[in-house]
UniProtKB/TrEMBL annotation:
Its main location: membrane. One of its GO terms (molecular function) is transmembrane transporter activity. The chain crosses the membrane at residues 51-74, 81-98, 104-124, 136-160, 166-188, 208-225, 255-275, 282-299, 311-330, 342-363, 375-395. PANTHER family: PROTON-DEPENDENT OLIGOPEPTIDE FAMILY TRANSPORT PROTEIN, RESISTANCE PROTEIN MDTM, PUTATIVE-RELATED-RELATED. This is MFS transporter. The lineage of its organism: Bacteria, Pseudomonadati, Bacteroidota, Flavobacteriia, Flavobacteriales. The keyword Signal does not apply. It is a multi-pass membrane protein. Belongs to the major facilitator superfamily. Proton-dependent oligopeptide transporter (POT/PTR) (TC 2.A.17) family. It comes from Polaribacter aquimarinus.
Length: 406
C-alpha cells in the first residue's frame, strides 16, 4: 500500500456529487411512484400491463445512454449534454402530472431520453476531474457512489412518501424540481478539456485488456447481484413479519444501504491517504461477495428470529463487496480510457450488465421457485471471478516487475 501525496479533492468533486445525489433522488423517487400511479385511480391499468411498461422503460435506458454518450463526446460536449439531459428529465417528471396515458408515455420517454444524456456525461466529467491525480480516482468515485446511495434513499423516502400520502402529482412535481436543482452545480462548475490531461504510460493493448476485464466484471457482478437479490428480498419479507425488532417493512427493504454509508466513509478516508491496486480492490470485493452469499446460504429457507443477526452480518459483507467493486469499475474505466471518448465508454459499460441480466432473466421462474439456487450461482460466480482476479493481479505485478528490470 502506497501513501498518496496529493490528497486534495477539488471543488468539482462536491459539485458533481451534489448534482448526482439530487438527480438520483429525482429518478428513484419517480421510479418508486410510477407503477403505483399506473395502477391507481387515474389510469387504472392492470398490474401486468404496468409492469410491462415499466420493464420497457428500464430496459431502454441502456440505449438512450449510448445516444447521450455519443452526443456528449462527439457533438455538443459533456457539460451541455448533462444540462440538456437534466432539463429534459425534469420536463418528463412534470409531464406525468397530465392525467392521461399521453402524459404517461410522454413523461417516460422524456425521462429515458434525459437520463441517457445525463448519466454517461456526468460520469465522464467527474472522472476527468481526477485524471491529473489518478491515485485519488478510487476515493473520488467512492464519494460519488456514496452520493448516489444518499440520493436514492432521499428520493424513495421523500418523493415516495409524498406521492402516497398526498397525491402522485405532488411526488412528480418534487421529482422535477429536484432535477432542475441538480443542474445548478454543473452550470457553475469547470468545463474539462481532454488535451489538458497527463498521458499515461500504459500501452494501448494493456489499456484495452483492462477495460475488457472491467466490462466482464461489471456484467457478472450486477448480474449475480440481481439473481441473489431474489433470496435477499425473500428474507427481508420474512424478517419483517417475524422479527421482534421495531423496524418497519420499508426500512427492512433499505437496510442494506444503511450499512453502505459507514463502509463508504471508511473507504473514502482510507483511499484518500493510501493507494493500492484497483484490481486488488476488485479481488477483495468478489471474495467478500462470496462470503456474504455463503453466510446467507446457511440461513434456512424458512428462517427464525434467531437468524436476524446472521442476515445483517451478510449485508455488512455485501456492503464491503459493493464498495470494492461498483466505484472501482468506474475508476478503472476512467484511468485507462481515452478521455475524448470517456462518455461513450461509460455508456457501453451498461451493456454487459443488461445482457447478463437478460440471460439470467430466462431462468427467473426457476430462481423465484428456488431462491437458494440464486445464492449457489452467486457463490460460485463470485469465487471464480475472485480467483481470476488474483491470477490477473499476480500476472500484472510480474510483468511490471520484469519491465522495470529490462
Amino acid at each position: 500500500m502506497e501513501k498518496i501525496q496529493n490528497r486534495k479533492h477539488s471543488i468539482e468533486t462536491f459539485y458533481y456529487s451534489l448534482t448526482r445525489m439530487l438527480e438520483r433522488a429525482s429518478y428513484y423517487g419517480f421510479r418508486a411512484l410510477v407503477v403505483l400511479y399506473m395502477t391507481g385511480e387515474t389510469l387504472k391499468m392492470d398490474r401486468t400491463e404496468a409492469l410491462s411498461i415499466y420493464g420497457w422503460f428500464a430496459g431502454s435506458m441502456v440505449f438512450s445512454q449510448i445516444i447521450g454518450g455519443l452526443f456528449g463526446d462527439l457533438l455538443i460536449g459533456n457539460k451541455k449534454a448533462i444540462i440538456f439531459g437534466g432539463i429534459i428529465q425534469a420536463i418528463g417528471a412534470f409531464s406525468l402530472c397530465i392525467p392521461s396515458t399521453t402524459g404517461l408515455y410522454l413523461g417516460l420517454f422524456l425521462v429515458v431520453l434525459g437520463s441517457g444524456f445525463f448519466t454517461p456525461n456526468i460520469l465522464s466529467n467527474f472522472g476527468k476531474s481526477y485524471l491529473n491525480k489518478t491515485k485519488l480516482l478510487d476515493s473520488g468515485f467512492t464519494i460519488f457512489y456514496l452520493a448516489i446511495n444518499l440520493g436514492s434513499f432521499l428520493g424513495i423516502s421523500l418523493i415516495g412518501y409524498s406521492g402516497e400520502k398526498f397525491a402522485y402529482n405532488i411526488g412528480f412535481v418534487i421529482s422535477g424540481i429536484l432535477m432542475l436543482l441538480s443542474i445548478v452545480p454543473i452550470i457553475i462548475s469547470k468545463e474539462f478539456n481532454s488535451e489538458e490531461f497527463e498521458k499515461g504510460e500504459t500501452s494501448i493493448s494493456k489499456r484495452i485488456l483492462n477495460i475488457l476485464i472491467v466490462f466482464i466484471v461489471v456484467g457478472v457482478f450486477w448480474g449475480i447481484y440481481e439473481i441473489s437479490n431474489i433470496r435477499i428480498f425473500d428474507l427481508q419479507m420474512q424478517f419483517s413479519e417475524i422479527s421482534a425488532w421495531n423496524i418497519s417493512k420499508s426500512l427492512w427493504q433499505t437496510i442494506g444501504s444503511i450499512f453502505t454509508l459507514p463502509i463508504s466513509l471508511v473507504a473514502i478516508i482510507l483511499w484518500t491517504f493510501f493507494y493500492s491496486s484497483q484490481f486488488f480492490k476488485l479481488m477483495v470485493g468478489f471474495i467478500f461477495g462470496a462470503i456474504s452469499f455463503g453466510v446467507l446460504f446457511v440461513i434456512p429457507e424458512i428462517p427464525t428470529e434467531n437468524h436476524t443477526i446472521t442476515y445483517l452480518i451478510s449485508l455488512v459483507f455485501l456492503g464491503i463487496s459493493e464498495i470494492h467493486i461498483a466505484p472501482i469499475i468506474l475508476s478503472i474505466s476512467t484511468k485507462y480510457a481515452n478521455p475524448k471518448y470517456l462518455a461513450i465508454l461509460m455508456s457501453l459499460a451498461f451493456l454487459p450488465t443488461r445482457l447478463i441480466s437478460l440471460i439470467f432473466g430466462l431462468f427467473n421462474h426457476k430462481l423465484y421457485d428456488n431462491p437458494m439456487l440464486g445464492l449457489k450461482i452467486g457463490i460460485v460466480g463470485m469465487t471464480v471471478v475472485g480467483i481470476g482476479l488474483i491470477g490477473y493481479a499476480w500476472w500484472n505485478k510480474k510483468t511490471t516487475y520484469n519491465k522495470e528490470l529490462s
